[in-house]
UniProtKB/TrEMBL annotation:
This protein's record includes keyword Iron-sulfur: yes
Chain positions covered by the region annotation Disordered: 233-289
UniProt organism field: Ottowia testudinis
Official protein name in the record: Ferredoxin-type protein NapG
Upper taxonomic lineage: Bacteria, Pseudomonadati, Pseudomonadota, Betaproteobacteria, Burkholderiales
Coiled coil, from the record: none
Transmembrane segments: none
InterPro entries reported in the protein's UniProt record: 4Fe4S_Fe-S-bd (IPR017896), MauM_NapG (IPR004494), TAT_signal (IPR006311)
Domain of life, source organism: Bacteria
GO MF terms, alphabetically ordered: 4 iron, 4 sulfur cluster binding
Amino acid sequence: MANLNRRTLLQGTATATTAALVAGGAAVLSKPALARPAQALRPPGALPEREFLAACVRCGLCVRDCPPQNLKLSTWGSGLAVDVAIGTPYFEARAIPCEMCEHIPCVKACPTGALDHALTDINKARMGTAVLIDQENCLNFLGLRCDVCYRVCPVIDKAITLEKMNNPRSDRHAMLLPTVHAEHCTGCGKCEKSCVLEEAAIKVVSTKIARGELGHHYRKNVVQRSDVGHVGETRAGDKVEATPGLPRFGQPTQRLPEVPHEGDLNPLRSGAAPYQPAPIMGSKPGAAP
Ligand code: SF4
Ligand code: SF4
Ligand code: SF4
């Protein structure tokens, strides 16, 4: 009986261990599905990643209907696909970018809506966002004239512009700096593909990684461009001086809370009364809390 109990116990332990290993293995195997590399881009119109993974049935129809064959279905353990959920479509901009087909056949082919059929204008696709990731090696930043990425962009002068700045090295020559404007960038990857460097200085990565997000108590100035520089006006009506030759980035301004609260930085709040903690019931004025 004792042996039987011992055997039963060992079998039970083994079963539990196996179950734990299987569960652990499943957890490890499922993890990469949500941790795809930043350079693995989804086709146009792809839903947010979690919803996309739930909706995509891995049929490969988008891949079949993609004329330049830039889309691939991820397979087990090769290249970038090693971290992309198996069987799902993706592309690598540096290998073959999206051609931004006018009629978006990949989206039309998708039977489940994982590629959103509401996307009918390819210029509104947001597959990722281009980022000039390495200013130290970009030829334009080194003072040379390259601007290949600027010239190949299908949304030229909107998604990417060349911003003129003085070259601090010579103080005489101008630098034309490729500058991406995320609100217009489709993430097609043509700029990354065409960068002349051995490793691209401009890369398209998922927008989640490429972009920060202001605290919601901040607001952006409305900044307009003029021929002589960049003139702006805040929503509060404050004038922003023209600054010839500087990139046109809106300066965020902080909107302070209406009422002081604990932790306020009083010097920032010119003229406001300092925060006074409410007296604790029953305590004497001036007594330590
Ligand atoms: S828009 Fe064209 S090139 Fe781009 S992924 Fe779709 S079918 Fe392929
Ligand atoms: S990814 Fe590059 S080429 Fe494509 S729209 Fe954006 S800046 Fe232009
Ligand atoms: S193609 Fe590459 S090196 Fe040339 S300007 Fe663009 S990012 Fe810089």
